Structure formats: structure tokens, C-alpha cells
Amino acid sequence: MIIRKEFEFENAHIVRFCSSKRCKSSIHGHSYKVEILLESKYLDNAGMVYDFGLLKQEVKQIIDSFDHAITLFKDDDQEYLEQMKKFSSRWIILPLNVSAENFCRIFFVLIDTLLKQTKMINGEQGVYLKSIIVHETKTGYAQGFKEDAYSEFLPPIKLEDIEFSKAIQEEWKDKDFYEKLKNSYTFVNPKEV
Question: Considering 30, 35, 39, 68, which one is annotated as catalytic?
């Protein structure tokens, strides 16, 4: 069985090297919608694959980190990167060009890592991330799966290569959240949300 939870965030970027002149040469923003699809053959003690309320914890925090932020490609012009970081308190540096497809891969790796490091305490079994869908516009979206996130044909994504600004980190309920995620910390689902 598959469940789906949708999140929204506002974000600005430039997509370097793309065919669209406006997208590759001008900062612009989107009202993104992100769909998280989880799958399991089992149901928990409440008859659910995974309680939607649990997704409003760390998963929502990951998505919300990108809200009202500018997302930057680490290999972009260094002067541009420094200026963006200087004039925006909320920024994220990614190891990949900032496209909807790469957002799928980034979100997949972040959320997949979180789920693998989460101790589930309400009878959840075999829950895994099936897919991520990132809607960039009303008419266009990208969908990514595990084989895309960890593809041998695409540049690898390492958590240590993703950088969140101090302003973003200060809004996390646990300021050490990302360090814990990168260092295989075991997150424990709350009994109630």
C-alpha cells in the first residue's frame, strides 16, 4: 500500500546550462509542491502505513528548510554565490544544479536517510520511501525513485555536500538536526503528535 503526503514551499534559483534563456540567466522563483510517497506491505497498530502526523515532524522540517530561501549550485560563479549569501539569510548550497529533477534526488536522499535512521514505535514495519514528486509549476513536475536518487549514471549526493545557512538551522527545533542526520543518529518517533 502507498500513502502520499504533500508539502509546499517557495524557493528561488537559477538553472544553469538549461535551454531556457530566462531560467539559466535570471534568478526566479516557484511555488513548489512536493509529494512524499511511502510504501509498506504492513499496517501499524492503527491500521496505517505511517501516521501522517509523524510526517509533520522532521520530514516537514526538511521541506520547510527550502521555503523562502534561495537554492544555489556549489559550482556556480563564486562571486554570485557570495553575493547571494550576503543578501539572503536563508540559502542552501547543493552539489547539483538546481532543477526539479535534482530536487527530487536531494529530497529523496534526505528523507530516505531520515526514515532509515528512525526508530518506529507504533507497529510500523517495512516502511520505505517509494517516490518523490516535485511540482515546479502547475503543468510541470519531476518524479524520482530510489534508482534515480542513487543512480550510478548521475553525480552522487552526499549529505556533507549540502549546506544550510545558519538562519535555516536556527529555525530547526533541534539545531543539531543535520549533524545528527549526517552522523547516523537514531531518531525516535514520538508516542503522540
Answer: 68
